[in-house]
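#onboarding

Welcome to the new folks! Below is a worked example of what a typical request in this channel looks like: someone posts a single protein sequence, and someone else replies with the predicted structure as tokens. Don't worry about understanding the tokens yet, we'll cover that in week two.

Example request:
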Amino acid sequence: MCESEKKWAVAVPDEAKFVVVEGIAGGGKTTVTKRIVDLWPGDVCVYREPGGTPFGEAIRKAVQSPDIPNVNERAAVLAYASARAQLVPEIRQKINNGTSVVLDRYWSTSWAFQGQKIPSLLVWGINMIATGGLLPDRWIFLGGDVETLLERKRRYLKAGGINDDRWDLLPDLVEFTKRSAKKYGELARLYPKRWRNIDATQPLDGVMGDVAKILLEIGIELRQSNT
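Example response:
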């Protein structure tokens, strides 16, 4: 259930790539993901997590909804891994057929969120089973000062933005987000060749400039934006 697939009359990369966009609340992850896909120089497909397949979207609705409280962390990590297990074969098929994939979140989110209460090694093991060990060519992490980014998120919601994520309604959201940032930092140390950090507090043009440099590392030159 690919949300966007485009062809451009320009040189196509020699091989398909797999890129994951991660970030803390207010980092502009969804906006950046859309911009990457719009400027990608070849065939590309974008998915979101949890979701991406009918099964995954059903899990998203059940586990992610603010209307279903008190989903415990073990249930959540297993549910998200199940959605991932359904999605990854589709991702592999796209890549094998020459279509690059940009993914909005991956098991790195489970590491950062559920990994606060469940041993990290357990979270990792569950997700290695679910994904068959598939790793992205690059993780692009949108982080920065937590208070600044959460204030951006609050302004977005106040202006009428949609919130379908129960994590953004936690009573200890600031501390939860700070802990999440530390957990993401663990992954940066575990996967230094694949993980790249971007300061998401800067303007979008600056963020996309950093994104472009990161993608050049794997042979992807984004098209020039018309905006």
